[in-house]
Amino acid sequence: MSASYGFYGDDFTGATDTLAHLARAGRKTLLFLAPPSQARLDSVGPLDAIGIAGAARAMPPAAMSDELARVGACFAARGVRVMHYKACSTFDSAPDIGNIATAVATLRRYVDNPFVPIVGGQPGLLRYCAFGQLFAASGGDTRAIHRIDRHPTMSRHPVTPMHEADLRLHLERQGMRDVASVDWRAYALPFDELEAMVDAKVALGSSAILFDVLRDDDLLTLGRLISARSRRAPLLAVGASSVAQAWCAAVNASASREHHEPPPLGRAQGPVFALAGSLSPVTAAQIEATRSYWKIELDPLACDGDTLRFKAAPIVDMLRDGRNVLAFTRRPHASAGDAQQEDASRERTAQACAALLRDVVRAARPRRIGIAGGDTSSHAVQALDAWGLSYRAPLTAGVTVCRLHADEPWLDGTDVMFKGGQMGDVDVLERLIEG
């Protein structure tokens, strides 16, 4: 079988956002937790799009290359025409962690097209790119838009702080040379003139072309470029879920396909277990706003499998009693020593939270789960005996509820919410219960 579109999510929360956009555009899509075998693909039937959820955002370059080589080979073998490296909408990355240049260098070996578009914004998430500069809202405040290097959270990200707003310079520091750009004024040109502009930049040997995005209408124009050029030869595209939005807008417009919206998510039929490993201020506010959960605080500076194991038993007991439970890591006090300690323990914390989730789910078998935090989501889902995800329903902008696919009947069909640290309204955890 073949699929027209293949995407790799650099973390699980972002991957599910792309899954949602494709599914809502009427594209039959499955998100796999590892490159799927041919037997697995045969078992699920024809797909319009194939997704692979990964954790490249938290990997050093060598590990990224190894993982993405397997992904690129899988997509190439399935005849994918658009190979999408789904990066975070804030493009937070660094030379030594989540290096986007490494992703491009690895994946472009599996496509023939010299055109590598980078889609620089996602208006639906209040991410905008103008003259190559990235801007974003902070949390639920839609009024204040910050240049990304002055963003109250992303400029201080504990692993990949954004100190440069010009995405061309940001990527150059990671190893991408001669990134060209097309600014928003070009979208008013006749389409053939825009194509000629792109051809000229490709002929000059640019490693990629960054496209401004200010409005949803810009995505249709970019989708036409991506769709038309992918018909000539398979291509690599980089960016947030706006790449999928762009492609779907163009393909659906040409095929007169309508937007597809599944039934809304109803109230949870049973207790909900939520696990928040994110230390972001947005997630902290969402935890503070909850009123329907028993809360259990986890110390991120003392997290390991043995330390958290004793936490699983009371959580299981409460869930079996029909109570909703929220386990969350508290934010350490900000001091130089603590910051270094927090950074050193980040991977251990994510793994410990994953082990906790696995133990709780196996014992209590809740049918709806919420996971907050990109690293936490990646590790947590890998700890479960599942192989894939499909789109279930939206919860808030950028927050999706998925259906878990697993060979074990008691796990298959479980609702799972994935939420990045910067995503969701303040009541998102309450909505997970209420629908």
Automatic annotation (TrEMBL):
InterPro entries for the chain: 4-carb_acid_sugar_kinase_N, 4-carb_acid_sugar_kinase_N_sf, NBD_C, NBD_C_sf
Organism of origin: Paraburkholderia terrae
Domain Four-carbon acid sugar kinase N-terminal, first and last residues per copy: 6-246
Cited Gene3D superfamilies: Four-carbon acid sugar kinase, nucleotide binding domain, Putative sugar-binding, N-terminal domain
Tree of life domain: Bacteria
Protein name as annotated: Four-carbon acid sugar kinase family protein
Organism classification: Bacteria, Pseudomonadati, Pseudomonadota, Betaproteobacteria, Burkholderiales
Family classification: Belongs to the four-carbon acid sugar kinase family.
Keyword ATP-binding assigned: yes
